[in-house]
Amino acid sequence: DATQKEWKGYYFLPAFEPVTAQFAYNQWNPNKGDVIVASYPKTGTIWMRELVRHILYCHDKELLEKAKATMFLFSFLSFGQESKYDVLKKLNFSRNVLATHLPAPLINFKKYEEKGAKIIYMMRNPKDQAVSWYHFSKTQPYAGLPSYKDMYTADKKKFFDSYFAGEHKLFAKKGEGYLEHLKEWYPHQNDSNVLFAFYEDLKKDINQGIRKVAKFLDVTLSDEDVEMIAEKTSFNSMKESTRQRQNIQTQKVRVFKIFRKGAVGEWRNYLTLEQSKLIDEKVQKILGNTNLKFVYDLDKTRC
Ligand code: A3P
To answer: Which ipTM score applies to this complex?
Structure first.
């Protein structure tokens, strides 16, 4: 439909701009050591971004705050106007922490590797991802646009049926979605400057997750650093600091439902048995040839 933006057949959410994504691909050069958190929406993007910020700057309060400001301005690679890249350049911040929901074919891997930028691809089991999207999509600010007004429905059965049929046009091709996003990212799993991380692994053992990310980013942390970062990036801390900031900035702007529940296994309360089975089949069909295994409940092993 006419209101939906796209590049190479991949649909963009409103407010994410194909021209800005193209600018990132063709013109923008990252600094050595920049970190791009890549993901499909609702897989823990903001959590990983916050982990990276704390890991990089836990020893320097001033830089920690400065990084927060640049992240706010810059947010996602394809978000907003191309001119923001000039601003970023002028800020001349050492290691930027960026994010993107772009599918792998729209990412300039070669350039980022040559320039020494690092990429962390965040993943979450597709059933909880869908539940998180259900809650987010009803409050997201673009719900008023035609393509999304028709998409959201409080009727869970209908919502998930249409979502799993690939009818929600976000960062995927027609009829596709999260699983195809994973499939296209998968070949980059072993790139030297790419790290794959699971939401559920972080939930299970955050200290280990922090150490792994720190190692990937060439940062040395003490045990105390790890404990402190775990505390600062906990669900409750992040929710509280966002709430405070939103209270200061605007009383009336709708609060984004980014920090909703932060749990594993909630899908059991939302999906029908048939929908859950459908996802299992799709995972087998689309990702069966990969070594990606999802955790659907924290006390169970991978399947
Ligand atoms: P829920 O909707 O299931 O609560 P994204 O940043 O990609 O939009 O992902 C949002 C999801 O990550 C939300 O899931 C949110 O609660 C969860 N999340 C954010 N910060 C978190 C944290 N510190 N710990 C656990 N989950 C977190």
So the answer is: 0.99
| Nearest residue to 227 (alpha-carbon basis) of 212, 211, 203 | 211
- Number of H helices and E strands in the chain, helices first, is 14, 6
pTM of the predicted model, to two decimals?
Answer: 0.94
Q: What share of the chain is helix, strand, coil (3-state, %, to 5)?
A: 50, 10, 40
Q: Which residues contact 3 (CB under 8 A, 6 or more apart)?
A: 14, 145, 146, 147
pLDDT digits (tens, 9 = 90+) for 185-224: 999 999 999 999 999 999 999 999 999 999 999 999 999 9
Which of 164, 198, 215, 191 lies closest to 302 in space, CA to CA? 198
CB distance 43 to ligand 1 below 6 Å: yes
Residue 260: CB within 6 Å of ligand 1?
yes
Nearest-CA residue for ligand 1 atom 5 is: 42
Q: Which residues pair with 79 in a beta bridge?
A: 16
Whether the CB of 39 sits within 6 Å of ligand 1: yes
